[in-house]
Amino acid sequence: NISSLKFNFVPPRPPACGFLFQRIYYLSLEFYMGRTLQNTMINLGLQNACDEAIYQLGLDMEELEEIEEDAGLGNGGLGRLAACFLDSMATLGLAAYGYGIRYEYGIFNQKIRDGWQVEEADDWLRHGNPWEKARPEYMLPVHFYGRVEHAATGIKWIDTQVVLALPYDTPVPGYMNNTVNTMRLWSARAPNDFNLRDCNVPGQCDAVLPLLCSQFFEGKELRLKQEYFVVAATLQDIIRRFKASKFGSTESVRTVFDSFPDQVAIQLNDTHPAMAIPELMRIFVDIEKLPWNKAWDITKRTFAYTNHTVLPEALERWPVDLVEKLLPRHLQIIYEINQRHLDHIAFLFPNDVDRLRRMSLIEEGGTKRINMAHLCIVGSHAVNGVAKIHSEIVKTQVFEDFAALEPEKFQNKTNGITPRRWLLLCNPGLAELIAEKIGEDYVRDLSQLTKLHKFVDDDLFIREVAKVKQENKVKFAQYLEKEYKVKINPSSMFDVHVKRIHEYKRQLMNCLHIVTMYNRKPPRAPRGQAAPGYHMAKMIIKLINAVGHVVNNDPVVGSKLKVIFLENYRVSLAEKVIPATDLSEQISTAGTEASGTGNMKFMLNGALTIGTMDGANVEMAEEAGEENLFIFGMRVEDVTELDKEGYHAQEYYNRLPELKQAIDQIRSGFFSPKEPDLFKDVVNMLFHHDRFKVFADYEAYVKCQEKVSELYLNSKAWTKMVIRNIAAAGKFSSDRTIKEYARDIWHKQLPAPSTIAIP
Asked: Which residue numbers are catalytic?
């Protein structure tokens, strides 16, 4: 009886005066939500009732669930992390909002044609979105371009072009706790006096139309517009809510901002929403007329920043001339922030010009750029990495000067995943089996999985875990046969590599191992291979497909080895492949992967991990014991040492006959006979421009894979290792991560847990 359920939509009514009611605002340019129907039924405790009701209507619930489009408003781990965090914040009863952009088109649909990636528009809203509600009563103006005027009454940003931000709200239910939070996504609309159809004014259409279009953007100016569009609308909304006299009111009464940081906590998910810092300063100084020092103190105490990458090319740097054109007042504010920041550094470190250069928000030389990570660090009271090893690299290498100046500002918050979607929803057989052994409370407290350790030697439990895995593999094999027309043996090892295609994630090393296994015909253990989908990234995809074409059609290999590239990898496909996986590939070069969350999903679902000591793999090995993962290759200190000595790919090629054979086959056109030179750029990169040292770890990787094959032939020993991994996965719940954010960064006390009884 759905109508009998009552939900408290956050925010609940603020308590009486004298008690500070804090709201959490999670700002992210990506929310990779996937499908909503099944997740909502699980969190409301209605899945069985709905299944029965649909059955009574003569329909099939699984077919209905497959019709729903993925909300693909992200392109990888950062966006999916944001989605997991929303689930955990609601489940923990935090008064929290997710704020982002309602892309008209999601991440592109990937098609593989003749082995090449082809991008198609993801028109995910073509049939509408039943989970969202437009809120035109909260529509807000966002300004671009214009000029700055210094008047007697203060500084004004005038002659701007206006875009309207229309909010769409999506409910985010907690797990069985009578709480529903809100994700508010902004959509761009033209003002009423602005006729898009008749628009022929240069620049004006450009200011509005691209915002309506796509997450799959091109051009720096469009991306900066999107980033500012989100933060400008969001901060207006936050301040409107802060000022409101009572719940649901749009009337402003509060004009004193002293309590603002106690009632508002804003988390910046990477640097994409960094313009929120100068925007809040603009509001405080130009509009609310606060003195600069007071405004800056409030701003710093309000913001916290999560860093997601150590790769220099991935850290945002905006050209000064672009910011000056698009957001002239914000550039002035950033300059002022930087001047005061550098004055402080110069006071502490007199005559240290090089330190000033390293710590400046403005990078000189060539095109002047704003370093957005530096802006986030200076403008926040807390900075965190997303795994222990990553946070250490952030402190000791990437932002060493800043960490030396304010060591207390830098923290670690190891990422996590929501067990509701990544176990209950995607692997009900395993979830039920666990509940039979240790009860159902682990869904809210994943640390209880440690109770499974006492069943490691239980023969019945070992057989049941293996049976669930086999059922998942059979189901996925049927899906592959239907969708990809490839028949695979469900008894073979499903060796899965799902990542964004990037050189540091080293899909190429996996590919070289496949070629090596192929050359050792017949391979020692049968396997299936899956991988998900810039010029090099597309060449890597083509190479994987070319190798797959040769391997899959070789009669000598037969069904012993199959290579399948899963096109258009997305949340709903992950929910199918992860429960069916035997071996999870986490093989990035040590020191390059911030954390990873796919590694956690595979671990929780009973896959074993082959990986380097990178990202969260390090903590997974700590929790499960390194002997229960297949760890290989260089550690961070080894990579550093090799960088000092110099990495020479040719030496490995000359020394390792199997590596030489694999490379020679790729270079000679063995896998591309119609175009022998097709992969020359890939080979050239591996020899001369490989920052991620594939050849250096190749030998250790191949030897480690031999250990994997050997253990897989012993089903009982393999499954016991699987159980040890599941029992050690409790740390990697996003509930634990959010509790740490609440305690250490937001300084928020969690409400007492509550549950609802479902009639």
From this structure: 308, 499-500, 505, 597, 601
The answer for residues whose C-beta is within 8 angstroms of residue 393's C-beta and 6 or more apart is 310, 385, 591, 636
Asked whether the beta carbons of 341 and 378 are under 8 A apart, the reply is: yes
Mean pLDDT, to the nearest integer, of 131-149?
97
How far apart are the C-alpha atoms of 187 and 209, rounded to whole Å?
Answer: 11
pTM of the complete model beyond 0.90: yes
In which element (H, E) is residue 328 found?
A: helix 328-348
Structure-derived torsion over alpha carbons of residues 505, 507, 509, 513, reported in degrees to the nearest 10: 140
Long-range contacts of range 453-462, CB-CB < 8 Å, 24 or more positions apart?
Answer: 453/724, 453/727, 455/723, 456/720, 456/723, 456/724, 456/727, 457/720, 461/433, 461/437, 461/723, 462/716, 462/719, 462/720, 462/723
Distance CA 277, CA 341 (A): 14
- Nearest CA-CA partner of 318 in 351, 274, 286: 274
Cis peptide before 11 (omega within 30 of 0): yes
User: Looking at per-residue confidence, does 175 or 214 come out higher?
Assistant: 175
Q: Is the alpha carbon torsion for 641, 646, 648, 649 positive or negative? A: positive
Q: How far apart are CA 479 and CA 66, in angstroms?
A: 12
- For 456, the token pair is 């490691």
For helices 204-213 and 220-243, angle between their N-to-C axes, nearest 10 degrees: 80
* pLDDT tens by residue, 192-203: 754 444 343 334
Q: What are phi and psi of 234, to 5 degrees?
A: -65, -45
Contacts 24+ apart (CB under 8 A), 218-221: 220/318, 220/319, 220/322, 221/322, 221/326
What's the gap between Cα 301 and its chain centre?
A: 25
Q: What amino acid is encoded at 435 in this protein?
A: A
Residue 90 to residue 85: CA distance in whole angstroms: 9
